[in-house]
From TrEMBL:
TM annotation in the entry: none
Source domain of life: Eukaryota
Protein name per its UniProtKB record: Pectinesterase inhibitor domain-containing protein
Species the sequence originates in: Eruca vesicaria subsp. sativa (Garden rocket)
Every Pectinesterase inhibitor domain range: 26-160
Residues spanning the signal sequence: 1-26
The entry's keywords: Signal
Amino acid sequence: MSTTTHVTVLGTIFLLLAVSCTSATAFSIFLDDPCTATDYPALCRGTIGAQKNVNAATDVAIRELMKRTRQARDIAKKEMKVLDGGVSTCLSNFNSAFDNLDKALKNIKEGDRFSLNINLSAALTDYDTCSETMKGARGDNVVYKSAGVLYKMADNCLALATLVV
């Protein structure tokens, strides 16, 4: 082997080691605070507290999202009498999102990351569809606001799910 080949091989090995060390460092940040992987870290921290285990943090985040979805569903049922239009769509989507979140909890237990991402993505779409449907509603629209918060929480759950092992 020539000297040039040795330098190239050693340079490549050094580069790979440097990248793997950087990735390990970046990953350790997620282990210290999984919420750094989310788009809404303050909301995430308020949801999962000091939980550092990513599987447990994801589970806690999904359970809280399910609780809030139940509350939004109850609000939507009451608002159907007052608001016209998309409230029934939101009610249906909240039910669908709840079912998808329930499946996502099972996916965590089974270690099925692929299905976990699919079910969380489906819930995210449900909340987004509700928001889009209610966007044009007049007045102080509590259903629209609820769907917005639920969307952010679902987005955080999806980000946490990428860390699940």
